Amino acid sequence: MSDIVIIPVGESTPILPSSPAFAHGFGLFETMCFADERIYFWRDHWARLCKSAKYFALLPPKEASVLAALREYVTESGLEEATLKLSLMRESEGSRLYVYSRPPIPSPDNRRLRLERSYPLFAGSALAGHKTHNYMEAMHLLSLARAQGDYDLVRVDSEGFLAETTSSNLFFVKEGRIHTPSLDTGILPGITRAALLRCQDFAVVEGRYLPEALLGAEAVFVTNATKGLLPIERIEGFSGGESADFRTDGPFLRSIEAAYAHMRTACSKQLI
Description:
By secondary structure, this protein is an alpha+beta fold. About 25% of the residues lie in helices and about 35% in strands. The longest helix is centred in the C-terminal third of the chain and has 16 residues, at about 250-265.
């Protein structure tokens, strides 16, 4: 069984406490940006959801049915811009896809990150690289960061190499080259990350980097599907209590942002 449940803005839907989705967080989700009557990077979001669904033996509906449900949702809700969500959940029998949206999540005005080595990302986890509803760890770590006034935490993997933040992929610019941690650190294969990797305007180097690689970087930025590219102004928590400040503007960063904006439009799906 696989069907679609549309949850109108301001409404809710019942989920049985005995279902694997409720009891164990057995599900996948995608968070997508909708604006100008388009879903940005729809093909990438759908491909990632389907790939993970196959891995976890979940059955998604047909793509055409999902697009029709999304179209109905934004049309009846009168939304011009929204953060759209798809949740593919394991039910007592089969799978069910939920279509809904979420309001913007408040965040600090600063763009400061803190390096955190105490909670490493484990690349060997069966959940590594998948966007699952088992998100409690990431949300807990994000709440710790926000309690200290930081925008987010930078996590390392179990070997001490740079990984990602709790909700974004990490990039840094050094000696005119863009670098990002490789997928074998256990990070999520982010949608914006993938777009930058296939951009023809510049090259992105994937690798395994110790945190100290960020020292001396000309710029650091994080990416996700809703925020796009977010330049970081400061990272604290290096060995010996060191911190580092970074430029949040400049010709190179602007060129990256412009290339991303072009790709976002080119890779969008007209919904209405």
